[in-house]
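Per reviewer request, we include the raw input and output of the structure prediction for the construct analysed in the revised manuscript.
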Amino acid sequence: MRKILLMETRETDEVWPTKRIEETQAQLYSYLDDFIPDKWLYSKHAIMGPVGKLLGIIAAAKFGDNVDPYVGYITNIHDQQSKKRLTLGGMVNLKNAITTLLAIKKEVSERAFLKILSSVDYAVYYLKVKEISTRSEAKKMEKQNNE
């Protein structure tokens, strides 16, 4: 017979860094202005571009706490998958977002950090889908007005 496992649940005193998370979301969304995929697809993976890959490698701590390898890795992916070159502004947004995420990672538990990454992931996705929908509606309206 197995031993009984007792689990204790307790509240944590961790503060959710909402403002910094929102800044990171805005920076990653701004970075995606430089990303124009070779093929237009409407899956989450295609819409998120290199940002989805970034969040995965940060969660896995592929490069530890060093910002530059993350930026270089995502820049390489960007260059391979995008029609548009990464601008200096996009690079700054990317670097600032990575720096903020790595700083948050040091301050919160691993579980909380994974929740934060998930929230950033879906917030950036929402913003991109909203942008795509707005453009689509504008094109429909323009087409109707021209007829």
